[in-house]
Amino acid sequence: MNKETKTNAIYTSLLFVVFIVFTILVKTVDVAAIGPEGSKVGFAAVNGAVRDAIGIHEFWYKLTEVFGIVAILVAAFFGVIGLMQLIKGKSLKAVESDIYALGATYVATIVFYALFEKLVINYRPIIQDVEEGLEASFPSSHTMLIIVVLGTAIIEVTNRINDVKTSMIIKIVLGLIIALTVVGRLICGVHWFTDIVAGMILGAALISLYMTLKGFFAKSFD
Asked: Rounded to 5 degrees, what angle do the CA atoms 108, 114, 120 make?
């Protein structure tokens, strides 16, 4: 493991620790029943104030849902690249180390998504489906997904596209989608403020994990 990979591993560990500490704080600090059906939420004063100030905006919900589909398509695109390399090279070693790092990071993202569907920290500030009732909302999985998939895509674009202008345009578009998603998921009203913050922290930790795995796989494939 080279110096850069070790540094990335340290950053990854620290970010996951920050996420764990933040999650504990959300469960223990200023907890009050301000959610639907009396559901309890941490940092109630802040979360309640933000919810009341912002309200609910259906347009932003639909827009961020579209961005979620974009993220899935981007992840599928890199999956196709890996599959084509595997078919062409007829060997697992023919697949680039970056693709393995992306795949492992995507799997970790799915695991966290599934985990927090079962390990409920708090529920959404609104009930979207009366029949389904309360839904887990921490962390914002949509925010996490967009940050991870498009954040790692920005790194990949930097490494894969030599034309500076084309690379810059793609990175600006991806960065704009990330920013609009973070803001949009808060504005649309389906998440508490702390859900968005947690999604950002976890997303950053997973990008750092990708950077660590990227260095690890590159070394392993030498």
From this structure: 125
> How far is the first Cα of the chain from the last one, in angstroms, to the nearest whole number?
12
* Residue ranges of domains in the chain: 3-220
- Mean pLDDT of the region 166-187: 93
> Which secondary-structure segment (H or E) carries 23?
helix 3-28
Counting other chains too, the contacts that 72-80 makes at CB distance below 8 Å and 24 or more residues apart are 72/149, 74/149, 74/150, 74/153, 75/102, 75/106, 75/149, 78/102, 78/153, 78/156, 79/103
Exposed/middle/buried for residue 199 (C-beta within 10 Å: 0-12, 13-18, 19+) = buried
Q: What percent of the chain shows pLDDT beyond 90?
A: 61
Whole-structure pTM value: 0.90
Q: What angle do CA 185, 175, 168 make, to 5 degrees?
A: 165
Rounded to an integer, what distance in angstroms lies between the CA atom of residue 36 and that of residue 193? 16
Which single residue is written with the structure tokens 């560990």?
13
Q: What are phi and psi of 123, to 5 degrees?
A: -110, 165
Tens digits of residue pLDDT in 86-100: 888 877 787 888 899
Give the helix ranges, DSSP H, for 39-163.
Answer: 44-54, 58-89, 97-118, 141-160
CA separation, residue 52 to residues 61, 123, 189, 195 (Å): 17, 16, 9, 16
